[in-house]
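for the recovery benchmark. tokens below, seq after
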């Protein structure tokens, strides 16, 4: 294990510099502006996922729709929770959450989807979850040890997206539907 490097006097002195930055100290190891920009893409992704799941929740119909709609609603609420956590972190990093609806869908990693077919909705949601999983994995690796708080937040969200993808796969398989579109 390497020595703990910074002496007490230096730590105390540095803490008094740039106090207007709040939790951001000299030790912050990431490119703060870039992290805020990436978190705004995550925020857009989560909000588009909220809207897509809500659409699917309200549009779900047919004999198998009950449990599927319940799953859509649960996912919508969890994506909203993710959006709230990410927006709060952006503000902690002294940034501004971008909630501009005009540019939401272009900034989002995952896509909105209009299908009226229940199985197609589940497949589109699975695609969106897999997009989020891949991009959040990349963000975790990119942040590495430079911003452990943001990385841990993304890791926690990532684990829920993996649960979502697994839920959707189980729904398709349980309904005897092909997973990959024809
Ligand atoms: Fe999410
Ligand atoms: Fe999700």
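predicted aa per position
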């Amino acid at each position: 294990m390497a020595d703990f490097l910074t002496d007490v006097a230096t730590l105390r002195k540095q803490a008094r510099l740039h106090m207007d930055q709040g939790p951001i100290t000299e030790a912050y190891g990431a490119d703060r502006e870039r992290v805020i920009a990436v978190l705004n893409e995550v925020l857009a992704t989560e909000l588009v996922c909220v809207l897509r799941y809500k659409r699917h929740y309200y549009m779900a119909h047919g004999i198998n729709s009950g449990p599927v709609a319940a799953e859509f609603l649960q996912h919508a609420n969890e994506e909203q929770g993710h959006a709230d956590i990410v927006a709060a972190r952006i503000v902690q990093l002294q940034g501004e959450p971008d909630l501009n609806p005009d540019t939401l869908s272009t900034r989002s990693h995952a896509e909105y989807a209009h299908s009226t077919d229940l199985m197609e909705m589940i497949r589109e949601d699975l695609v969106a979850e897999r997009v989020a999983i891949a991009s959040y994995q990349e963000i975790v690796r990119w942040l590495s040890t430079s911003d452990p708080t943001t990385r841990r937040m993304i890791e926690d969200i990532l684990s829920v997206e993996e649960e979502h993808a697994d839920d959707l796969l189980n729904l398709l398989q349980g309904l005897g539907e092909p997973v990959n579109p024809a």
